[in-house]
Amino acid sequence: MQAREQISEIRQCPRHGYFRGSQCNCGSPGRFILSGFKAEKLGRIISGALRHFPAELGLKLDEHGWANIDDLERAIAAKYSWARREHIEAMLDTDEKGRYEHDGERVRARYGHSIKVDLDYPEADYDLLYYGTSEEEADRILEIGLKPVNQHHVHLSKSIEEAVKVACIRTENPVIISIDARKAKENGIRILDAGPVCLSGPIPPEYLKIE
């Protein structure tokens, strides 16, 4: 079972902007923005709005998954009356997993969608990518390949270390599968570079092996 994310309080340093925790790296305690409790609530509804159920909140995404940030604020404020644009921007700018893009008046989730969006990222240019999983799942993946589960894309890590970190959320004994991304690309499998992760559709077993 996936561990529940614990979000620290969010504050704002006058020199370095928003940060999570009680003290900025420069030593400043900053200005209080959000408690950890409210940050967790806000993080969950932002994720839902941009990845899973925008229509239920009356939010419209364009074909590439972008939403107007004012529209996002109104949609969230209808559920949490205390939520303001400052709170949303603080959440986006301090997300430790790089899950969101904030481009002026627009915002979108980089990955993790269960709704269909056309993510217009460049194709990845890596020799190897990695996928962390449990011992129980590894043999099955090597047999049938990697396939999206509850999401539109398979999420691939750019390093073994990142793959281990992701797998450890679900298992105490991670197994790392390497993907021959170069060969997959040469054979027409499209893998997108979404920044923190790479995204793909199904990847057949011939491109996979245990590290």
Topology:
Blueprint: E1 10-13, E2 17-20, E3 31-34, H1 36-52, E4 67-68, H2 69-77, H3 85-93, E5 100-103, E6 106-109, E7 128-133, H4 135-144, E8 154-156, H5 160-167, E9 175-180, H6 181-186, E10 191-193, E11 198-200, E12 208-210
Lateral strand order in the biggest sheet: 2-1-3
SSE pattern, N- to C-terminal: EEEHEHHEEEHEHEHEEE
Number of domains: 2
Put simply, the count of helices is: 6
- Proportion of residues in β-strands: 15-25%
Termini, distance in Å? 24 Å
Net shape: globular
CATH topology of the largest domain: Arc Repressor Mutant, subunit A
Q: What's the average pLDDT? A: 94
Q: Which architecture of the largest domain does the CATH hierarchy give at level 2?
A: Orthogonal Bundle
Give helix % range: 25-40%
CATH class of the largest domain: Mainly Alpha
- CATH superfamily grouping of the largest domain: RNA 2'-phosphotransferase, Tpt1/KptA family, N-terminal domain
Enzyme class: transferase
Pfam families: PTS_2-RNA
Function: Removes the 2'-phosphate from RNA via an intermediate in which the phosphate is ADP-ribosylated by NAD followed by a presumed transesterification to release the RNA and generate ADP-ribose 1''-2''-cyclic phosphate (APPR>P). May function as an ADP-ribosylase.
EC number: 2.7.1.-
